[in-house]
Design goal:
Number of strands: 27
Strand content: 5-15%
Distance between the termini: 18 Å
Largest sheet: 8 strands, parallel
Helix content: 40-55%
Radius of gyration: 30 Å
Number of helices: 33
Length: 927
């Protein structure tokens, strides 16, 4: 049996091209590598053709494109035979909607609020403007509604297999409410002039049998459809549908279809309407992903039935919870999940549970029932920050100031981005909140004078100044840290308010903390106050994500290695003592969370990031190189009036990207050019400066694409490419050394190291979809087989081929498996380093009972490599490590020379023993 808590996980991205069977085929390789748990992307049924699986449309079945239940059974058996566990990425927050594949959503469109599945979706039914009846906006049209209608893009169809009627907009199915079937059948018969035919009479009789409001109702509808299916005459139906066949030269039929659509439980609209009018909660600003209300017990039970069965069958050993910040009450959800797991497997062992949670700088993770930690973004950034050169960052501050003509401060970028997101992408969600807040204020005479516009402005200031993703209030009083967070944010918002206050911020604070409901306060609607407070929590996360990760990260380019999910692009780096303190705290509080260095969501590959981090070690040479490159490439800029493509800041970002992704062993071919062009387009649109997804600027984007093509064309940019390749070779070596240090830290720090698919070779990928390209597992398996007894000197000479990283990965994982107690349960002790090069060495010990491991990792290698020109002279490290209290074969005394530790490799993990039994720090156990 695999261990309940993984020793190492390996993330696989499952797709139609890499399904359960192909995953099963690489399981033996993962076993040989030292992995204990396969960590799979979502496996439930997703939208056809999905490349990621996060658009789940049915939680109750396996994705047929991955091989369905039979394919999963084969994967499960392969894992069992190799003694590997399985962790799945699970999506509780949202489902894929629109199109024709989500049965719950289709039922809601057909039956509206009376659908038993309506409670599963967060829909504000009464918010559609200028409409007599409630409904849900469907922003699926590629043109205005009127144009789509008159072009005949919206078509009424009859499904003879179901006896049902639906409107279709290309691949989108829009069920017609059964209460409208009667009038439609009468129209069909009339249009077909079939009132005197046998089939016509039976259709009219069927329609006449269900008269009255809302008939046929839900109970009657199946019988109605079955009878319609039996008696429907194909010719009558075909001719009858013509009464609703809209076209510009068919005004009566166009009006008939329009009136029919207006009486449905939905309203069709242009996709751009979503930003201002959408009335269902989405995943961020993605219209095709609707939020689920898993706080509803029935919805939770239905969406987790398959998970429970897999746990009960012993086929699922862990779960990664996607976007937990989207949930109304994550604490309640985690409690329910733990209860479900215990019901399924008993309470005999822990069930590994991690959450996708992005922590801002200095933010602490709340404790949720049964949760071992996060997926590890925060630790990825801690590792990066300790490997960058803080002195070099100071120099890069000045470079960025000159390039951007702005101070190297991130906060103004984020605030500007938030304001733009509120005005464009998430306007509709913000309107819902402001209307709800105004209704709360209007509910009592003491607060009714707070105008809707003033409340909107106050709430906007609160959101602009809110420093993290969300609070974690439940229906009870807020925890002390949440209350302080709200009060501090209110204070910052109030300081920027120039109108008369008159208590409006006190009212907003009390609504957010639900203090309005305290005894003795003027009575306000308790359901509305709770709904407002909890919905704000679900709103601030998407605002922060779209503003920070998806906007500011693509505007602030001082050093791209720091522009990572959960990171701080303006970071000043992390000192070694601060790093040790963070690790000691982690060993106490979250020793079993994941440690990631690459995921499907990271902004660039782990080794591309490590290369870019190395620029902090040679800031002067980097700045000089950029100055020269800008001159060489000036003729390739696209200039149109005041427009410059790319902008100066974007060009600076592009040079960092090229150094991070530059091929090690092959020339930059056409495929590489296309990858950079695709990345540049995405980065420019995400940055929302010269162009955007909502409003693409064709001239700028064409200029950007041409600029990339020209500077990467040897015929046009030979001098630039020669200079780029020269610096790229140096940065690649420094980056490789950073990568090996990063890998060593990931594998030995408190936590569970997670390996993203393919990253055991050099990972120079860019942001998705570039990081989801197929992985050549055959090449990795073959290479692994040839490395049973690695010759480190030979591997060092051939370091560009990536085998050195693969061999070191297996070596580290072999040690983790052999010293499982040390790495899974051991505490963390920093070790003192002395000598001229002490700042270039991170040293610590992991220990459990008398077993221990001494870890020595190098950093800031530029002085030892002639600035990246040669492999480091490891004998030159003038530093010693105090190892008092530890013994190991080949070590004598209380000091370890770093040059001795680095005899064969620029990092070392030494198996050791403690001089006496040491009681490890007490760890929090979560089951």
């Amino acid at each position: 049996m695999p261990p309940a808590i993984p020793l190492a996980t390996y993330r696989l991205q499952l797709t139609a091209d890499f399904d359960f069977d192909k995953a099963a085929a690489v399981v033996p390789y993962l076993k040989s590598l030292g992995i204990t748990h396969l960590y799979a992307s979502p496996v439930m049924k997703a939208r056809k053709g999905s490349t990621h699986g996060y658009d789940t449309v049915d939680h109750s079945q396996f994705n047929p494109e991955l091989g369905g239940e039979a394919g999963f059974a084969r994967l499960s058996e392969a894992l069992r035979q190799n003694d590997l566990g399985l962790i799945i990425d699970f999506v509780p927050n949202h489902v894929g909607v629109h199109f024709a594949d989500n049965p719950w959503w289709l039922d809601v469109l057909e039956w509206g609020p009376t659908s038993p599945h309506a409670v599963a979706f967060d829909i504000d039914w009464d918010l559609l403007p200028h409409r007599a009846r409630g409904g849900v906006l469907l922003p699926i049209l590629g043109s205005s509604y009127g144009e789509a209608l008159e072009r005949g893009d919206i078509e009424l169809r009859y499904d003879a297999g179901e006896g049902s009627l639906s409107a279709w907009y290309f691949e989108h199915r829009l069920p017609i409410a059964p209460e409208r079937y009667g009038e439609m059948l009468r129209m069909f018969v009339k249009e077909a002039d079939a009132a005197e035919t046998e089939a016509g009479k039976r259709l009219l009789a069927l329609a006449a049998r269900y008269t009255g409001l809302r008939r046929p109702n839900r109970k009657e509808a199946p019988g109605f459809k079955a009878e319609l299916k039996e008696i429907a005459d194909a010719a009558i139906i075909a001719r009858g549908l013509a009464a609703y066949r809209a076209a510009k030269d068919r005004p009566a039929q166009t009006l008939a279809l329009h009136h029919l659509l207006e009486r449905q439980h939905y309203k069709l609209g242009h996709w751009r309407l979503a930003s201002s009018d959408i009335n269902y909660r989405r995943f961020f600003d993605v219209n095709g992903l609707a939020g689920l209300r898993v706080e509803d017990p029935g919805t939770f039970a239905a969406t987790h039935r398959l998970v429970k069965q897999l746990v009960a069958d012993g086929k699922l050993h862990g779960i990664r919870l996607d976007h937990v910040d989207g949930l109304r009450d994550p604490a309640q959800y985690c409690q329910r999940l733990r209860r479900l797991v215990r019901d399924a497997q008993g309470n005999t062992k822990p069930f590994y549970t991690v959450i996708e949670k992005i922590l801002c700088e200095h933010e602490r993770l709340p404790h949720f029932a049964g949760v071992q930690g996060t997926t590890g973004y925060e630790w990825m950034n801690v590792i990066t920050q300790v490997l960058v050169d803080a002195k070099g960052l100071e120099a890069l501050d000045e470079t960025w100031r000159q390039v951007s003509n702005r101070p190297p401060r991130l906060a103004p970028y984020v605030k500007e981005a938030k304001r733009r997101v509120l005005e464009t992408l998430l306007t509709s969600e913000f309107i819902v909140l402001t209307r709800l807040l105004a209704r709360i204020a209007n509910g009592h005479y003491s607060t009714r004078d707070f105008s809707a516009d003033s409340l909107r402005q106050a709430l906007e200031l609160y959101v602009l100044h809110f420093p993290v993703y969300r609070t974690y209030l439940t229906t009870s009083a807020p925890a002390a840290h949440d209350r302080k967070l709200i009060e501090d944010t209110i204070a910052r918002a109030r300081a920027e308010w120039f109108a008369a206050d008159e208590g409006i911020f006190d009212f907003l604070r009390d609504a957010l903390t639900m203090d309005l409901l305290k005894p003795g306060r003027p009575p306000h609607s308790a359901p509305r106050v709770r709904r407002f407070a909890l919905k704000v929590q679900q709103f601030t996360g998407p605002v922060m994500a779209k503003s920070l990760e998806d906007t500011a990260f693509y505007q602030f380019h001082r050093l791209l290695a720091l522009n990572e999910v959960g990171g701080d692009p303006a970071s000043t780096g992390l000192t070694i003592p601060a790093f040790h303190e963070a690790m000691r705290a982690r060993a106490r509080e979250w020793p079993q969370g994941m440690t990631a260095t690459a995921t499907h969501d990271t902004k660039r590959g782990e080794d591309a990031r490590a290369r870019i981090a190395a620029l902090s070690e040679i800031p002067g040479e980097w700045t000089s190189a950029v100055s020269r490159w800008k001159v060489l490439n000036a003729p390739h800029l696209a200039l149109h009036g005041n427009l410059r493509a790319p902008s100066a800041t974007f060009e600076y970002m592009l040079y960092q990207t090229l150094l991070g992704a530059w091929p090690l062993q092959s020339p930059a071919d056409a495929g590489f050019v296309e990858r950079i062009q695709a990345y540049a387009l995405k980065a420019a649109r995400e940055g929302k400066e010269e162009t955007s997804w909502l409003n693409p600027h064709e001239i700028y984007e064409t200029g950007l694409r041409d600029f990339v093509a020209k500077i990467l064309d040897p015929a046009q940019s030979g001098e630039f490419l020669g200079a780029l390749q020269t610096l790229a070779r140096r940065v690649a070596l420094l980056g490789a050394l950073n990568s090996l240090s990063q890998l060593t830290l990931k594998a030995t720090l408190p936590g569970v190291p997670d390996f993203y698919q393919g990253t055991e070779f050099w990972d120079l990928s860019l942001v998705d979809p570039d990081n989801r390209r197929p992985v050549d597992f055959s090449a990795r398996d073959t290479a692994l087989g040839s490395l049973s007894g690695p010759d480190w000197s030979s591997l060092i000479k051939a370091w560009p081929d990536g085998r050195i990283k693969l061999a070191w990965t297996r070596h580290l994982l072999k040690l983790r498996n052999e010293l499982a107690g040390v790495f899974a349960q051991g505490d963390y002790q920093s070790l003192e380093v002395h000598g001229a090069h002490a700042d270039h060495v991170i040293a610590f010990a992991r220990r459990h009972d008398r077993a221990a491991a001494i870890v020595v990792v190098g950093r800031l290698f530029a002085p030892f490599t002639q600035g990246g020109r040669e492999w480091p002279a490891l004998d030159d490290f003038d530093a010693t490590i105090d190892i008092t209290g530890y013994t190991a074969p080949g070590l004598a005394g209380n000091e370890l020379l770093v040059a001795q530790a680095f005899r064969d490799f620029p990092a070392a993990v030494i198996e050791a023993r403690t001089a006496g039994a040491i009681r490890p720090a007490r760890q929090r156990v979560r089951a």
